[in-house]
């Protein structure tokens, strides 16, 4: 079965042989551990070394010892198998026996993983088979084989055909995150050879400080000239989904404190409070300290109901007895800026959005403190994330520019 492009990893049999030798310290020990012959282990290791274009072990009378490249890749391989084991354990449930989990994990094949990930991406069996360019009955057999192996219902009928059950979707997510470890290991080996670009995908929330991101990105590319950074802007819900399945590496933007899932963690970088905003030549822009009563004469540009700003604005309108007439509702920041420029309406925006992107020539922040839960901008990552050198460099640079930004904002 052809591997989908997002899962072009070395064969599991070769990775298992490598992990066996890494843990046992010898080909013979790995052979006993995996119930294979020593020549079979040797062939698998040599094939993996050809795949990776590195030497993973130094062979000596006392055993097989990791090279520097082997140790680098071994860290990722160990995490990959730990995540694969945890994925199977979660699918089996809290009472699963550890030996059963280990036995079943060893039986998970490349085909099982490719099939489940293809179904997760395509949405159902029919589209997954088309994506893999195989007959649907072929995909069906591989999918059901994994289901029988684990004894867990992984699929269910949906409107468009057979898709994943909640258990199947969670198993696919965990398989995908496990695969990220090997991809990171391949990136690290390529980077060490200077042979290929290392990659990072950054999720950006709409109100994230774009100028700070640009500064951090340029600083990273100065020291990682072969790096390739992909910036993806989307809603929080979309980005969290992609972060949890390994499609992106980090989210930059307002924190939820706490994040909605226990496998995520947040790092605050600086405070970015909401402010009442109007056009630069608005009648209220000439008032040094507008009173709450001064705001009552003006209508608002409302955020859509799904955005955190909407709840804050609704609360202000209720408590300050402001105009609650909803004539314009949008989640487009460009639309908000344009509408403010041609009207006397007010809106609620983060301070960093106004000052960080040089919009202070168009917009004016009114000196009216907005009571709301402290709003922090920062990083959201997977809790067990192990960054590559490129990832770590980006995070460090973003911390640096955020510290400067936070100090500057506090002085205003």
From TrEMBL:
Keywords: DNA-binding, Transcription, Transcription regulation
HTH lysR-type domain: residues covered: 10-67, 112-165
SUPFAM superfamilies: Periplasmic binding protein-like II, Winged helix' DNA-binding domain
Cytoplasm as UniProt keyword: no
Record-linked InterPro entries: HTH-type_LysR_regulators (IPR050950), LysR_HTH_N (IPR000847), LysR_subst-bd (IPR005119), WH-like_DNA-bd_sf (IPR036388), WH_DNA-bd_sf (IPR036390)
Pfam families referenced in this protein's UniProt entry, alphabetically: HTH_1 (PF00126), LysR_substrate (PF03466)
Highest taxon of the lineage: Bacteria
Molecular functions (GO terms): DNA binding; DNA-binding transcription factor activity
Keyword Transcription regulation set for record: yes
Gene Ontology CC, one term: cytosol
Organism: Pseudolabrys taiwanensis
Similarity remark: Belongs to the LysR transcriptional regulatory family.
Protein name, per record: LysR family transcriptional regulator
